[in-house]
Fold:
Amino acid sequence: MTEPLNVEQTAARLREADPVLILCHKNPDGDTIGCGSALYYALTALGKTAAVLCADPVPRRLSFAKPRLFRGEFEPQLVVAVDVAGVQLFGDTGLMPAYSRRVDLCIDHHAGNNGYAQYTLLDDAAAATAELLCDVIEAMGVQLDAQMADCLYTGLATDTGCFRFANTTAKTHRAAARLIEAGARVEELNTLLFSTKTRGQIEAERMAQSHLEYALEGRCALIWLSQDEIENSHADPADLEELTALPIGIEGVKVGLTFRQQPSGSWRISIRTAKGVDAVAVARRLGGGGHLRAAGCELLGTLDNVKSAVVTEVQAVLDAPEEAVCRES
Ligand SMILES: [Mn+2]
Structure:
């Protein structure tokens, strides 16, 4: 079992350690890369050696974060994971397996975090791990600079859909305010992260929309992209996350599903739900996890089999009032 830590205890462990290896999750998003990078800069500001390890490349859109990437050049004294809810999310390429089995410290905001690390700072009320890491970095005695602020703002903004999702709280906005004061380039980042699409993204969107279908009397909408289509679109797979907003954005839809085929052939399914429907309840039935309104899982099988398996569980959750009721106000 993991030992829970508070912000001060977490900061103290980071202050004591050198060198530090920071692990991000596979299929990296703005929160894991933003946090990994910000923590790298904070440790560097304290004169420490640190580097970031991720099983997948840093998405082009997040390349401005520019953390030092780990190439095995030091033996870490502390291995810390950011925004990683379970060991299966580390991935198994490159150097990752050598370190993902002995994680000392985990900083995370996923309610389903299974306590794989020796010590864990977990706050499932935080909209993003970045919200939590703002406090940790300050408790480390590090002054937030513009580079750290950009990285942390990216985590906050991407996990909240630019401060629109239900997870956004007053604390999220206070964290954002601190980051803006520290120099976060809000307009540039929001344009980069939310208002600009590559031609590949538009092409992928067009193909996904052409596959739009409805299930469960219109309460569920789904889109999908095969691996061939993803390749032919020339979209960076990391840029396809926004597709998941499409089916749930349709009037009357309670559960929006996005199926993306992975290079291995398996299907990665993103589950987005309307207020009052628990996305994690659907994901858990399929071996996945996530947040109340945004969750996911990965399944093997033909598209038809996978679709019907997921829709069956969606129906079970929608038709089970007790399970479907969220504890949100
Ligand atoms: Mn996150």
About this structure: The chain has two domains: 3-194, 199-324.
